Amino acid sequence: MSRRSRGVSEYLENSLKSYFGEKKGKELAKILYKTGVRCFDDLSTDIPEEVLQLADVDKESFRRFLEEYGPQAIVRLKEELSLLAKRLSDAEYQLKWAKEKLTSEVMRKDPLERRGALRELILSANIVGSLIESVQLCCSPYDYVPRDRARTYSEFLREVLDKLLRVRKQLPEVSSELEGLIGGIEKIIELLENEITGENLEVLLSYMLSALSDIKRYLGEGSLDNKLIVLENIRLKNKLISLICRIS
User: Fold this and answer.
1) What is the spatial distance between Cα 168 and Cα 236, in angstroms, rounded to a whole number?
2) How far is residue 134's CA from residue 246's CA, in Å, rounded to a whole number?
């Protein structure tokens, strides 16, 4: 973890500002630095009550801050991600279901309608890719996305949402995967209407773009085993989007 020469670590300071607000977070960061705290590792023991009183922060609030941003939160997140990753190994049980689904839905799909749906998917992916580039260029990773820019991003995401709702009707063989992605987009829009950092938004949009790419791969040519793996990848990314939205 990187440290600054005249203050607490950048990660600790940004976490404090994100949880307590810009002004109080900076104030608390200065007080902690003066008491010998440089990073989260230095917060493994209780903070003296008088230190918290200087920043007008009660101990319960600081405990909740550590639970949400401290090392234990990272460990908890890793455990949840590990459980989600294990789902990839369960793909084989869906073999019979996938065969029936591919036979009943894909083979009888109207080619023109299918091409139109694929075009909508490509357009959606292009929009999300452009949003990622905009976030990288115009948004600070650790600051909240500005209100006017958040509104613009929400408008583009609603356009993607409309496209995917149409695709879901046209391609029922991926309806459940699209349902998860649609739910993730709705949660991202909700975060944009409140507050979300540039870094978290970029991560969520990247998972969304990857899931859209996987859906296109699934709809293309390939072996049944590969398609099963792609389906599980899509579901895992949808769950990651939901998890990150929940902790953002």
Assistant:
1) 19
2) 24
In the block, residue with structure tokens 């319960």: 60
The pLDDT of residue 161 is above 90:
yes
Classified as helix, coil or strand, 10 is helix
- Helix extents (H) in 111-174: 111-138, 147-170
Closest listed residue to residue 231, CA positions, set 82, 128, 99? 99
pTM, entire model: 0.51
In 10 A of CB 110, how many CB atoms?
A: 10
Mean pLDDT value across the chain: 77
pLDDT band for 91, please (50, 70, 90 cuts).
Answer: low
* Amino acid 3: pLDDT: 43
SS3 of 32-44: HHHCCCCCHHHHC
